[in-house]
Design goal:
This protein has 40 residues and is mostly helical. The protein has 2 helices and no strands.
C-alpha cells in the first residue's frame, strides 16, 4: 500500500490566491442555487 501525502494533489497544492478564487466561485454557485430554489 502506497503512502499518499494528499487526497487531491492538484487542489491541495494550489497557491493561496487560486484557492481563494476557487472558494469564491463555489460560494457564488451555492448562493445562486439557494436563491433560485428557496421558497422564502
Amino acid at each position: 500500500m502506497s503512502e499518499r501525502t494528499y487526497w487531491e494533489p492538484e487542489l491541495e497544492t494550489l497557491p493561496r490566491a487560486k484557492v481563494e478564487q476557487l472558494q469564491l466561485e463555489r460560494l457564488k454557485r451555492h448562493l445562486e442555487f439557494a436563491y433560485a430554489n428557496s421558497p422564502y
